[in-house]
Amino acid sequence: MEFDLSSQPEIVQQAAGYALQGYELALTWLLSPAAWSQFALLVAAYLLALVISGRVRPALERLVDPGESTSILATPRRFVLRFLPLITPLLAYGLTGIGESIVRSLFDSGAVIAFGKRVFLFLAARALVRDIVTDAFLKVLGRYVLLPIMALYTFGLLDTVTLALSESVVGVGNIQFSLISIVRGAIAGALLFWLGQWSNQQSTQIISRNEEMRPSIRQLLIKTVEFTIFGVAFILLMNIMGINLSALAVLGGAIGVGLGFGLQKIASNFISGVILLLEGQATVGDFVELDGGEAGTIVKMMARATILETFDGRWIVIPNEDFITTRVANYSDSGSANRYEAPFSVSYDTDINTVPALVEAAVATHPEVLDAPYPPDCELRGFGDSGVDFAVEFWVNGLDDGPNKYTSDVLFLVWNALKDAGIEIPYPQRVVEIKGGIPQAGP
Description:
443 residues; elongated; alpha+beta
């Protein structure tokens, strides 16, 4: 039964045509002495490359490997060391190129040699993806983009596929582009934004190490560099895809209308974030408390919001606008000390004139209690129901919460000092007066 290709879809017919051409080409090569000579040359070039790389590569590793060195050339040498697996396929490619001129002069044909050179390039790309690239994203990109492209190039189908994609045009509104521009844009976009992310990380590390700048200025500079990098990446991507930026004017107008109506809060929070970073009234590492009761340490300042971490480990996302329009207490600004107080009571039988000096001396022994701006100060606060009420005020650098328990430590010192002095700390008590005497029980 004869198979009729004319009734099959066009793509099936094309695939069958390519398969037939490949079969005829393979048959021609098998029956041609010139082809066998070129095959022999390819095998010889690859075997010679294996022998040479087997001898050269260990010497190069010993020469390039910096070991435990931390010199300025250590990092570039480690980078070069990673590319040594490419020696064998690239050496085979070079040796084949040398023999190609000889074969073409003898047989006036070099199709097999050209195919072999493309195979060696494919092997080099495979070694690059498998043995050299370590970044997870680049490895996926190499496995599913670079290797398929190199496979098409190896079999001579890359130009055909590229032409077919170039002739397929799609459009969105007044913007038209081909499928090849979509593929090219996807590949270039992935590379550009990965490179932008990497560049942003490197610039962030460099800026963060500069201790001479204020933390708020460092944060603002980091955000500026980040927006600049990704803005340039976006413009480059549009040019690579062949999209005229003037065609995006309608989209820009829609975004402007959206900012005027639905995105007012986002724009306000973004501008507020810039003001916060410029003024430096609150920055990463400060402990702040807002009017709404939210309190915590600033762990991250973003374009739209600021993240606070409470002492119980929760993260609170606060819009940047709240830092501008409401009252904010910053307990860490300029490294200023904070004052706390620890209340306590003594019995009415105590000579209260001796209490302040006793307590102040005990609290001053705490290693975190400061003498400036003021030393510990014990004050009489009132006469309570059960005893005489005092409070000792003290200054420390830091917050009385989280890892620091200053008030608890001070109360321990007060307790021990009063106990050592024989001063009683009262417990709640009441005096009950019964008028008219105690009623007598009946007979």
